[in-house]
Amino acid sequence: MRKTIFALSLLASFFAYSQEKTNTSPDKEKQIEGVVITKTKKAVEQKADRTIFDFSEQPQLNNGNVLEGIKKLPGLVATDIAGMMYQGKILDVYLNGRPLNITSNELNSFLEGMPANSVDRIEVITQPGAEFPATSGGAIMNIITNKNANKYLTATYSGNYSFTNYDKFRSRTTNSLNLNARNKFFGWQLNVGQNYRESMLNGDQDVLLHNNTDRIGRGYFAKAGVTFDLGQDRLLLNYDIYHNNNDNYTLSNGIGDRTPDNSPLGYYLRDYDFTSSDIAHTNSVRQEAVATYQKRFADKSQKLDFQFGYTKAYTKFGQDNVFLDKTFQEPFEPLPRYVLGNVLSNNSDMRIANFKIDYSQPIKLLDGGKVSLGGLYERQDYDTESRGLTNLEYQRQTASTYLEFQAKLKKFDFTLGARAENYDISGITRVIKDDAVLERDLTPFNKFKLFPNASVQYSLMNQVYIAANYNKKITLPSISALNPNNVIFGSPNTQVTGNPDLQPTIFDNYELKVSAFDYAFIGYSVSSAKDQVAQIIMKDGKNLYNRQVNISNMKIHNFNVGLPIPFMIFSKPMSEIMKFNFNPDKINFMYLYAGYQKHDIDNLNNKGFWIFNIMTQLLLPKDIKLTANYSYLTPKAGYFYFTADKPFNNNLDITLTKKFMNNRLTVSVFANDIFNGQVMQVYSNPPEGQSVMIRSKYDTRNFGISINYKIPTKNKLAKEDPNILNQTKKEDTGVMQQGQ
């Protein structure tokens, strides 16, 4: 009991002395009588509306691709069947303050193609205010890749090599280079990188389908930014391009009972075994251009921003059958080997244009306050094509405006706002049936909706807060769910289809949270969802069906707690600990996270599940740092329309890091999923049809080395400029503006 009291009491000193005033902006240097003082980044920070994870200084997170790093974040659940959730909230994924507008398998592929060492930090915004689009749903995960620009040309190189050795040896490499500089006229940045990854995927869908996929992924990206200072004002121009080129070689086998109507043997229903070899190729290019004009005033807290952005993303997918062997049963009758050739040929083209205005200024309200307001207009067009037929034409126009007030009264902080959005969504789908093209309209969505938000925070004591939050949000069905081409692999007994009749999901989000010293917290939240979109997998006889449906009503309950424990509480008296000037990067400590989540769905008895995460940092001789991360998610619990047979998370990662050359060179060696326990195995609970066992296993156990070298500037005290690569955050508060 005495140790427990010590641990809780130590929190105040541990975090009060380890940092100065909280600041989420990148490291800054100040010159005081020739001495450079560097503000240390925090690994995890708890804010009233968000949790911030630093990637740039954590080798255990940035030694692979972004998707691998995200899956290690405490409280986050990422699965192939139901996307990403953080502390019970569906995540909308942003990149540098603007939504990616991609989901499902395309999102996973995009994140796999981005090196984690190109990420500065990730902000999970659990309570998006009125300044964020109402379509953010339950929460926002904002991936920030920005770097600083110095007065002199500087460069940072990051490289990574890892390998796996399951059925054969596979390699993965990533490389990136960040250049930045500034002169008296403008500042510029260029960040380029590539990655090559070989990986394996084994999958089972009941006894009906088994597949082994050898995957090769190639990714390239370039991000360029230029900023011009126009007096107090600034003009920022950004251009990004991402290119992924992936090949999948799949050998599958299974059983079925249906053959085409035009079968040469004349059978429609007859049991058979099959073996198939297929090659799938995906080529995607995403480009984004953004122009931002920032008007500044004599009062630094008064701001007016104008931003125009345009995004174009094109994806081409094809699958070729190398051979298909089929054998009928009862009676036994092998058929000649078929070579089907091209079985899938799908293209998609997405174009998004938006213009937004944001204004904020302080106002005299109670003990001080601020008002923010703005507007957004966005147009999205999305077309899909299959074998020359344009089978989806989707259009969305969104016009919105918001008004939000923030005020202080003694120890209270209040936020009250509302966002009004008008949606005009329409489209056409086409299918070929009986050699004829059948056309019909998408279910239209033309509505005006108001989305309020409110929060209150009370300061119990210095750096200890209790907060209550509420907001109403909406999530529009992802285009991949609407898309009739939502197929990533075709097999003889599998049908994967989009659902053009899906309706938007309306969320009411409630949260109560106590946080202390940025790291420690305890909270409870509930999200009440109407028309939640969910994936359904079922079987009918010996055929598999995969589709998307709306759940009329459901609730997601979530309880979570996080607590840091410095190990010195077990070896030093409290009087000595209270005098210690802590730096979390220089001590041994453990960070504990636990969360409980339960999905309440009508007519479905789902059990809740626990999420556990333990991160430990140990300082070894020779200034070597050991970081161990263990995560576990309890099985036998309900996750939407699935029940986990084995834990989604059950893995141990270990990283050893040492810095050289006055901290300019960082070298890390790592081992991920040491015990090879990362596997997804679930049973579906479809509202109709028969249940299916689904299992997928990636080659998650890998070993490797990563390096990061910062070429020094000519002047170590050179002034740093704010980020200019996709700059979207408010410079004085560190609070990201609404992203589009």
Jot down its keywords.
mainly beta; single chain; 41 strands; disordered N terminus; disordered C terminus; eight-stranded mixed beta sheet; 22-stranded antiparallel β-barrel; 740 residues; globular; 6 helices
3D architecture notes:
This protein is mainly β. It contains six helices and 41 strands. The chain has a 22-stranded antiparallel barrel. Strands 3, 4, 5, 6, 7, 8, 9 and 10 form an eight-stranded mixed sheet that branches. A two-stranded antiparallel ribbon has the order 1-2. β1 and β2 form a beta hairpin. It is globular, with a radius of gyration of 26 Å. The N terminus and C terminus are likely disordered.
